[in-house]
Amino acid sequence: MASTTASESETATTVCLVSEIESGSWLCCVQLLMELSSSATTHLRVPPTSNSSVKLPIKVTTLKPSLSFFGSFSLSIGFHHHTHTQRCYSNPVPKKPPSIIRACTGVGAAGSDRPFADKLLDLKDACWRFLRPHTIRGTTLGSVALVARALIENSDMIKWSLLFKAFSGLFALICGNGYIVGINQIYDINIDKVNKPYLPIAAGDLSVQSAWFLVIFFAIAGLLIVWLNFGPFIFSLYTFGLFLGTIYSVPPFRMKRFPVAAFLIIATVRGFLLNFGVYYATRAALGLAFQWSSPVVFITTFVTFFALVIAITKDLPDVEGDRKYQISTFATKLGVQNIAFLGSGILLMNYILSVLAAIYMPQAFRGWLLIPAHTIFSMSLVYQLLLKCDDYMLQDAISGFYRFIWNLFYAEYAIFPFI
């Protein structure tokens, strides 16, 4: 009878130990392990389950009530008829918390006791990352610049009553942008786990179901806004843009697999459709028929070529994942450094042509702004390229170069209303 009682006591101690470790109650773990240290080797039996019975020999050396114990402690429970031996060593406290401490303390952090406000902030952060902020900034800045240009050209026709329509149009563009980048993330989860593990779906911060809800909301909201406010022609352009964004990512089309088709889609959506569509819609809202102006022709052409540069350089940080999942891009075919030089060459050609346009068409452009601005942009590009050309096998350097390309994109739209 005494033997049975001791066995039951050992079993209860083991189950309690496992339970406390899983729940993160380390103080209780220390107390239980101090009790176990009374014997050099203890054999603990877990009550038989419906399928198996497991004996767990746990060898316990001298235990001290300090955090150094947790530096190497681990506990495994096998349910495959194997015997596991666990050893506890007294090591110095590591500089960084071991993974088991982070994992167990994370359970409590993610539990139901976590404040609702913190959960809401995490959801907000995940949704914002889902929208790919750098693309939102480009879309917003581009649309604002084109509207501003149209208003500058027709300043006598500005009506404050059109302000709501302008903001609704901007929201529709953001919805379209969110749909396109969102649908791409849904179908690129495995690739993003390699290339962009910080994205919310790949990181597990946003479920696929929630992502589908967001992209469906973006598509419906954008289409409704455009249909109700901007007429059938702009609606058809907007729908065409969503269609191109869909076939870019969604099987069986998945045009991103084909380098030429991929960069043509990006150049069309971000280059031609955005610039032409926003300018057309703004003039229509002012009651004017569409008419090209030299600055709008310039920015539409310039940004279309710039979008080509973005399309081929966006794959520079993604070479590892694209190769793993057999996504053919110019970066995987030609190499990172070659694509960096190719993209920079196209962009430099853009800047040179812009300077020449300002020189030979002084009546259409303000040369005092266009020439020095594009000279500075081109010199900064050359400096950035030469500064890091030897580091383009390093992920940080590649990502930094791609971010720099986007900064040049923002800068172009920033000066556009005034050229």
From TrEMBL:
Q: What keyword terms does UniProt attach to this protein?
A: Chloroplast, Membrane, Plastid, Transferase, Transit peptide, Transmembrane, Transmembrane helix
Disulfide bond: is it a keyword of this entry? no
Q: Which GO terms describe its molecular function?
A: prenyltransferase activity
Residues in the signal sequence: none
Which GO cellular component does the record give, naming just one? chloroplast membrane
Superkingdom of origin organism: Eukaryota
Membrane topology, as annotated, equals: Multi-pass membrane protein
Record's subcellular location:
Plastid, Chloroplast membrane
Report the family membership: Belongs to the UbiA prenyltransferase family.
What protein name applies here?
A: Uncharacterized protein
Q: Record the organism.
A: Clitoria ternatea (Butterfly pea)
